């Protein structure tokens, strides 16, 4: 997996590519250095962002308050920061 990770102070930051209005919500895998995520929610009023945060928190076993959108909230390409997540745990879950 050739993703762009930053691990600092007990938090892992990485890029995601969001595909809203999909048939189901799921983490697809790596695409162009980012984690590709399909979401059923439309990109309206933060619905897709809220669903993405819930999906990431559930997938990695952290509280939703530990998942943060660092930048580009309104873009399909985002930078995510998850506290209490190591790169090794991330890679184990995504395999």
What does this structure look like?
This protein has two helices and six strands. It has 95 residues and is α+β, with helices and mostly antiparallel strands. It has one domain (5-89): Conserved Hypothetical Protein Mth637, Chain: A, CATH 3.30.1200. Strands 1, 2, 3, 4, 5 and 6 form a six-stranded mixed beta sheet that branches. The relative contact order is 0.24. The model has no long low-confidence stretch (mean pLDDT 93).
Overall CATH architecture: 2-Layer Sandwich
The helix/strand series, from N terminus to C terminus, equals: EEEEHEEH
Q: Return Rg in Å.
A: 12 Å
Count of beta strands? 6
The share of residues in helices is 10-25%
Which sheet architecture does the biggest sheet show?
6 strands, mixed
Distance between the termini: 9 Å
**CATH domain topology:** Conserved Hypothetical Protein Mth637, Chain: A
For the record, the CATH class is Alpha Beta
Notable features of this structure?
38% strand
Brief sketch in words of this structure:
23% of the residues lie in helices and 38% in strands. The chain has two helices and six strands, in the order ββββαββα. Strands 1, 2, 3, 4, 5 and 6 form a six-stranded mixed β-sheet that branches.
Q: What is this structure's SSE topology?
A:
Elements: E1 5-8, E2 11-19, E3 26-31, E4 34-38, H1 47-60, E5 67-71, E6 77-83, H2 87-94
Parallel strand pairs: 2-4
Antiparallel strand pairs: 1-2, 2-6, 3-4, 5-6
């Amino acid at each position: 997996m050739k993703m762009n990770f930053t691990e600092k102070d007990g938090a892992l930051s990485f890029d995601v590519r969001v595909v809203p209005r999909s048939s189901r919500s799921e983490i697809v895998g790596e695409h162009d250095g980012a984690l590709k995520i399909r979401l059923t929610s439309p990109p309206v009023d933060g619905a897709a962002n809220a669903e993405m945060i819930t999906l990431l928190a559930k997938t990695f076993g952290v509280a939703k308050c530990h998942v943060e959108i660092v930048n580009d909230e309104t873009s399909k390409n985002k930078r995510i920061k998850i506290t209490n997540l190591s790169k090794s745990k991330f890679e184990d879950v995504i395999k």
